[in-house]
Amino acid sequence: MSTYHTSKAHNWKQKGNVYLWRYIEGVKNYPGWNFAVDEDARLSLTNLLLAFVKDDVASHRAVALTKPTDTVLIVPNNRGGIAKFKSPAKARVLYQPGVSDAGYLTESNGSVEWEIGRDSATSILSVLGEPDRYFDQRIINDPAVWWWGIV
User: Fold this and answer.
1) Which fold has domain 3-150?
2) What is the pLDDT of residue 1?
């Protein structure tokens, strides 16, 4: 039996709402990506990242993204929560244990690929573990990913 099918990451099932968007107006306020989750998604993504790190093999998982609601968009308060934005429908989180960069996102055809390595997985686990500590901060610099906490 292959390692992929017995890995913890392969058996992961998403729960909760993951919000990922970028502004197409008012971009100087929060350039790059914006990221928020509900509590179920916080726990679910934590489990995925822990599985990636524990398995320590290159793998990937699809993550369904939820279009940000008015309640989510008011948190960064870009133009009073009405700034126009773009939100992909899905993401592919690609884990590469040997990649030590902070992670990067690329967008194509309505979806995003988020490549992370061991170091960036550990950093994102810190954010998910202490969401209030990292609120309104860039959790990745290039491209910028702003963290808006639990919504």
Assistant:
1) Gyrase A; domain 2 (3.30.1360)
2) 43
